[in-house]
């Protein structure tokens, strides 16, 4: 019986001392390891700004260095007013690259501007629109963010 108690006590002390020292050599003051803290939240890595001018929504992403957005992974859906028709997204040509996650793709770095043509009445335009924008990008350091949805409420 004493061998079982001795083994349990030794195992518990070893486990708790490993837990206590696990963050000791991390460079961050909070004890969060560098591998967990090196990636930005998606809305910081890809800052989206939008404005509604006439029958068009202009979307602008400021893309942090070391990050990129996929040209093929943008979509826009109008939530309000419901009967608004969206034209084809007007996207500029991207940079052709071989992506480790998706193969041969076009990407954007630094900044991208996309126009979204809308068909809506003058009264609807003055009330504004609510839209859902979806996009996806990656960090060069090896993280591919999941598709991200952002809701925007715009008035002219």
UniProtKB/TrEMBL annotation:
The species this protein was found in: Oceanospirillum sediminis
Thiol:disulfide interchange protein DsbD N-terminal domain segment(s): 37-154
Gene Ontology molecular-function annotations: protein-disulfide reductase activity
Protein name: Thiol:disulfide interchange protein DsbD N-terminal domain-containing protein
Range of residues in the leader sequence: 1-22
A Pfam family recorded for this sequence: DsbD_N
One GO BP annotation of this record: cell redox homeostasis
Gene3D superfamilies hit by this protein: Thiol:disulfide interchange protein DsbD, N-terminal domain
InterPro entries reported for this sequence: DsbDN, DsbDN_sf
Keywords: Signal
């Amino acid at each position: 019986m004493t061998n079982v108690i001795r083994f349990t006590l030794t195992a518990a002390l070893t486990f708790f001392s490993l837990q206590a020292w696990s963050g000791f050599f991390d460079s961050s003051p909070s004890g969060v390891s560098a591998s967990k803290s090196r990636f930005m939240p998606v809305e910081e890595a890809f800052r989206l700004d939008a404005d509604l001018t006439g029958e068009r929504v202009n979307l602008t992403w400021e893309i942090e260095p070391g990050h990129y957005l996929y040209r093929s992974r943008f979509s826009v859906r109008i939530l309000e007013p419901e009967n608004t028709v969206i034209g084809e997204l007007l996207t500029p040509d991207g940079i052709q690259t071989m992506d480790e996650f998706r193969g041969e793709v076009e990407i954007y770095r630094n900044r991208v501007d996309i126009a979204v043509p809308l068909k809506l009445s003058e009264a609807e335009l003055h009330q504004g629109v609510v839209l859902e924008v979806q996009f996806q990008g990656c960090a060069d350091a090896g993280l591919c963010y999941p598709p991200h949805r952002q809701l925007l409420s715009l008035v002219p």
